[in-house]
Structure of ABC transporter ATP-binding protein:
Amino acid sequence: MKMKNSELLKAFRYVWKNQRIWVLFSALISLFMGLIPITNLWVVKELINEVAAVLGGAKQEYTASFLLLLAQFALLFVSSAVLKGQELLDKQTEIKLDHDLQQMVMQKTSSAPLAFYDVPAFHDTIERVYTGHGIRFMQPVKNIFEIGRYFTTLLSFFAFLLSVHWGLVLVSLAGSIPVLLVLVRFGNQRFHLRFHQTPLAREASYLKHLLIDRQAAKEVRLFQMKEFLLRGWSDKYRKNSQELLKLTRREKLAMIGMDGLTALFYVSAAGLIIWLARTTKVTIGDFVALGQAVQGTQGAMNGIVTHLARIHETRLYIREFFQFIELDLSAYEIKRGTAPFPRPLETGITVDNLSFCYPGSERYTLRNVSFSISPGERIAIVGENGSGKTTLVKCLMGLYRLSEGQIRFDGLPLEEIGESEFFRNLTVIFQDFMHYDFTVRENISIGQLEAAADLERVKRAAQKSGADRFVQRMADGYDTYLGRSFRDGEDLSGGQWQKVALARALFSDGQVIILDEPTAALDPRAEMEVFQKFDQLTQNSTAVFISHRMAAARMADRILVMKDGALLESGSHEELMALGGEYQRMYDMQAKWYV
Ligand SMILES: Nc1ncnc2c1ncn2[C@@H]1O[C@H](COP(=O)(O)OP(=O)(O)OP(=O)(O)O)[C@@H](O)[C@H]1O
């Protein structure tokens, strides 16, 4: 309980720190609005008595009635204007809070260690805490002010009812307690339902995404997946919505019962007033006002109870939000030091007895891998699918915590090098590199956007990779948008995208360039060009490339052969051919196709 309340306190503190004016205004408005009903009640009572006197002929004077009518108009108008002002202020605050809190979530998500993305629960939590922060953080504060407002109204009504008979207060109070219990119970159930529905909701939205995604559109048609996807989406959607409907049905039924109970208490109170009229002098205005006060008291009680239940419900969401923001990622994190990257690399990279197991997996993907790379050396890594090549690159990048062993740069352990320093000096283009819907210039300079203004440098990288040839023909040259999801940009072929990605690698001033299948999408001529120029392309850099093309690997200074997560062979093309092992087998197998 204490822990839960501390989450609420945190939300209050956050809102108070960031939106103090809104909090103060809301408090004032709540107090003001809380006093409106009793003022209105008094005006109504006086008005009815005045009109009754005029109609009954006891009074000739109309002025008081008109003045009271005017007061009623003023009350209606002012309260409506104040409420609209409050709504506007709320919206402004919601937008501001939403922006800042969403940013907090995105910061947390984007700085989470990569290993965390492999944990499904991580995605479930993101889905739950990704939207509606602003309103959820404001909600408890608003609820408290609303409770304050209703409380002010309640006290003023109680004072009025007490002045007639204490029994009226008792009847009004008794009607509200069952409502409290029902609302709290269903608030809890709604939250837990949403919690357990998230995985299925995520699956449904994945299927929906496939149905509308541009990238998937071709295959969805080709493999006639429409029915399969639609059915899958519909089943999941229906399952979740049926559960929600079931809960809503139970909730509404309970509410009907509660409303009946409230009406019963109101009728009892009205009976009590009539009974009182036999012994006490009650005017027609008093009767109407007392009836309104009983109803108003119950309304205010319901209001308090509803807002208490909402606080409870929102508290559960806020707790999840803070749990996510404060999530301890240390088990996945790699503690990075601040040492500069050795520049220039003098002794090179050493991988020492590296073993690696993906988080949550029992199986070692890399086992006792040891090798070293000298500065300026060109290394090719070859091996069958799934032999661990990409995993090795991810480890070299320091994206995962190693299970065993160490990676050093000029003898300096990877973890001791400052992160941004590290990524500045190590450039990787993955096999599944991103196609950014940005301009060509941004796509090439993405690792160093601050240098994007240097068009000559962008062009040089594109010339080396071969991208310049087709970029020149585009209407806006290097400022042409790529992709067509957002605007009328240029669509590139797979090979053209790869040339852009290669330019991205060449644009960086990294000392180590790692390319995972850099030529897989290139035509034979472009591929030859890349490999023939490879020395020149990766000038002054240490280069590692993964390739399934043995002819390309042949151009490397040294070839590492991976099999089942282990480093099987290492040497130049000639040495490995002479060895007559796995490399020779792979090489001969490919060579057969070309004879
Ligand atoms: N995030 C992950 N979590 C768990 N296992 C993974 C993950 N990524 C890859 N693996 C597993 O690790 C093994 C090696 O994968 P890796 O991508 O390193 O192979 P690869 O040699 O690069 O293959 P390819 O030539 O097909 O690109 C595979 O069995 C794969 O299933």
Q: What stands out?
A: The beta strands are 349-357, 364-373, 378-383, 404-409, 412-413, 426-429, 512-516, 542-546, 558-563, 566-571.
